[in-house]
Design a protein that fits this description.
Two copies of one chain form a homodimer.
Chain A (H helix, E strand, L loop, with lengths): L1 E5 H11 L14 E7 L2 E7 L3 E5 L4 E5 L1 E6 H10 L4 E6 L4 E6 L2 E6 L1 E2 L15 E4 H9 L16 E6 L3 E7 L3 E8 L7 E6 H10 L7 E6 L3 E5 L3 E6 L18 E6 H11 L11 E5 L3 E8 L2 E8 L1 E4 L2 E5 L1 H9 L5 E6 L6 E5 L5 E5 L5
Antiparallel strand pairs in A: 1-5, 1-7, 2-3, 2-6, 3-4, 4-18, 6-10, 7-8, 8-9, 11-16, 12-13, 12-15, 13-14, 14-27, 16-17, 17-18, 19-23, 19-25, 20-21, 20-24, 21-22, 25-26, 26-27
Helix pairs in contact in A: 1-2, 3-4, 5-6
Chain lengths: 367, 367
């Protein structure tokens, strides 16, 4: 293999495939990036067996076709620090990779491309299409409440529910539910799959923030493929049935509170300071006619916060893990939110003032 | 105690005394900040027994005198997150500290001020005075080569050598020597002391970057006091004799190289990429008539770098730990430096093109 390409462009694509490169593995080939130069152009591939990424063809002058796998960490570090515009990459029959740029020359031992695991085949016929930035936001706004332990494997992923016109993402960790909904630009009918949390967290690092760029999703029984234009990402799906979350959201409530989101986050953050471990020390909400008091107490001391809110319905006293509330509120872009309470031991729901683009359910704690 | 002060001002002073607060200790009082309100004003003190900081009087409306010690971490977190201009701090007879600001109210258990260890007494008669920014730079430019282990305790600190007109700081870790020199605005005669590295690293975080601000140093047998105007810092000194570093710097050399500092740092950084642990894999310099080749080799591969330099004297081949070279060069503000070489197994010296404001000595490695 021998080719010449632009350093900046190469680095940009390395950063994309790096998201699918394994950090520590017993299989050294998975720590590599596969470089392929053939009739289709110059392409990079990363694959940790759960998740694979293959770039689109990178603009390059291919002088000799070929394929080689090179350790991702060193390849990235070298290219990042090169001082020059054009990089020449060539290999010899022993898979030594020579990288030349400006007055620098590196020779790094690579591995044969044949040892590199191929990405799963996913047919790209019928797509669900939406804006990359919309998908990026939906993931960011739900991923914090996926389960951290493996007790229920389905909960370590997020449910993608496709409908004819829209699409929703749901995560559940046993204490709370995060739900986001968005329109689809193109649909290919009803379907639902569970996508691993790790896939979504890596995907979110490469999804575009521009409203111009679209992403197409292709689904099979075992895999999902995200086509970003610059690259495709293929991930295994989590098998099993997701929990039936819909029934947890009740339409009934006794108290509705309209609150300034930032004010509430700040008050909760301050109140939770008096507990060393805010998973265990609850904060207490006392909702009165015109305001809400947030209090916390531990062996360290006490905190008292007061915020003015609009209240409709009954006064109520209820306690929560402040972190769950803070994470949900932080993920919301709107300035104001509605919160529905039913009883001291019933979950509360955070809703938009208008529309149905999100709903967050949080279980209370006993006081 | 009861007083009212500005939140922003209080936070600024908390950040200063925090540098002397112990992070983990078996003596909980050392994790506290002492608040004192008396005839001299409102003052904060931190003291981890090695190092103590006492602020100047903080503008405050003192309604009732008193003293209390409060855990630094929680005090800092609370004040930082308060939403309001004025903070009211008061204590009761049980040392509970009440902090009120805006619609927040905290009550935190404190400890009696009597339990807080007093700072060592250092007479402030005869001072060495220089610009805070000059001292800050001198520390930054030498602190990286203090010894990391306790085999020779004197080497875990830096030597301060005071003269009538100037002052120099030296650090030695057994493989290299860093030396910086600066004028004194005021001196009180020759003296030398060894200041603990930890003191200097904390001091550097609070020294001003403005050329307006001066620092005065007061020295006793056991302690050094830095008066920054906004606060005083008192530290114990390290007892013992520093090593006689001067004799290691030789005036003789066989090769003088004039090099672009940034170009050399970048080449060294790239070359050291091929070694997984650059403490062990040396980089080799080959100095020729008009250029310098930097090469490195490990089981991972090879790196070759070429930089143009001005050379006077003999060609030479010599190997170094690249990290030692990079750290010394990075600490230098000048664009170009001179490097003196004598032989493959003799130390080299990095010098300014003009003047004598610094010298760095680095031992070579066997190839």
């Amino acid at each position: 293999m021998k080719l010449i390409c632009k350093k900046d462009l190469l680095l940009q694509y390395i950063n994309i495939v790096n998201k699918a490169v394994s950090n520590r593995t017993t299989l050294p080939i998975l720590e590599c990036i596969l470089l392929t130069a053939d009739d289709k152009g110059f392409v990079l591939t990363g694959n940790d067996l759960e998740l694979g990424i293959k770039t689109a063809a990178i603009e390059a002058d291919i002088l000799e076709k070929g394929e080689v796998a090179i350790e991702a960490r060193i390849f990235n570090e070298i290219v990042r620090r090169l001082n020059g515009e054009d990089v020449t990459i060539s290999t010899n029959e022993k898979n030594a990779v020579t990288i030349v740029c400006g007055s620098s020359e590196f020779s790094i031992m690579g591995q044969g491309g044949d040892d590199f695991p191929a990405l799963p085949e996913v047919e790209q016929n019928q797509a669900y299409t939406l804006k990359q930035n919309d998908l990026r936001n939906m993931i960011r706004q739900t991923i914090f409440s996926i389960a951290q332990d493996n007790a229920k494997p389905v909960l370590t992923g997020e449910l993608f529910e496709f409908h004819d016109e829209f699409f929703n993402i749901v995560s559940v960790d046993g204490y709370r539910i995060s739900y986001r909904k968005n329109n689809l630009i193109q649909s290919c009918g009803k379907n639902d799959v569970i996508v691993p949390g790790k896939t979504l967290s890596e995907l979110n690092k490469i999804l575009s923030q521009s409203d111009e760029d679209l992403v197409s999703l292709y689904v099979t029984d075992k895999h999902i493929l995200f086509d970003l234009g610059t690259a495709i990402m293929v991930s295994r799906l989590i098998e099993g049935d997701f929990i039936r979350y819909e029934q947890s959201f009740s339409e009934d409530f006794k108290t509705e509170v309209l609150v300034d989101k930032n004010q509430m986050i700040q008050s909760l953050e301050r109140a939770s300071l008096v507990s060393r471990d805010n998973r265990k020390t609850p904060v207490r909400f006392q909702i009165k006619t015109k305001n809400m008091e947030i209090t916390a107490k531990s062996d360290m001391g006490t905190a008292f916060e007061e915020i003015s809110v609009e209240v409709e319905g009954e006064e109520i006293s209820i306690a929560f893990n402040p972190r769950y509330f803070i994470e949900a509120l932080r993920s919301i872009d709107e300035e104001n939110v509605k919160i529905h309470f039913t009883a001291s031991l019933s979950p509360c729901t955070i809703l938009p003032v208008e529309g149905d683009s999100f709903k967050y359910l949080i279980l209370p704690l006993r006081m």
